Amino acid sequence: MPRRIEKIRESGQHELEAQHKELTEQIFRLRFQLTTGQAEALKRLREARKDLARVKTLLRAQQIAGAAPTASPSPVKSTALRPPVKSSALRSPVKKKA
């Protein structure tokens, strides 16, 4: 497994995007094979999902590293809290006195 991640890390962004597309298509095909009852598809499906997660992680890391840090974070606008809405379904039924 360490070789696999090192091989993925050495890839460029375009190669990672191509692997992302290839792995999503492979996962689709493997899921299809799994529903038809082919036993070996489960192991390859698990490996493909893990590889896809690795590729997505590296793409996200490159995206974060490429983004310029902002000088100050944007202010968070607080919204006023509204009182809870009482639903007729939540209320207890009213008993009428006869």
Spell out the helices and strands N to C: HHH
Give the quaternary arrangement of the chains: single chain
Low-confidence parts:
none
Rg calculated over all Cα atoms:
25 Å
Number of strands: 0
Shape: elongated
Distance between the termini: 77 Å
The secondary-structure class comes to: mainly alpha
Largest sheet: none
CATH architecture of one domain: Orthogonal Bundle
CATH topology of one domain: Helix Hairpins
Helix content: 55-70%
Describe the structure.
By secondary structure, this protein is an all-alpha fold. The protein has a domain of about 60 residues: Helix Hairpins. It is about 60% helix and about 0% strand. It is built from 3 helices and no strands. The longest helix is centred in the middle third of the chain and has 26 residues. The chain is elongated and about 80 Å long.
Summarize, please:
This protein has 98 residues and is an all-alpha fold. Helices cover 58% and strands 0% of the residues.
Topology at a glance:
Elements: H1 2-9, H2 13-35, H3 41-66
List keywords for this structure.
mainly alpha; 98 residues; single chain; Helix Hairpins; 3 helices
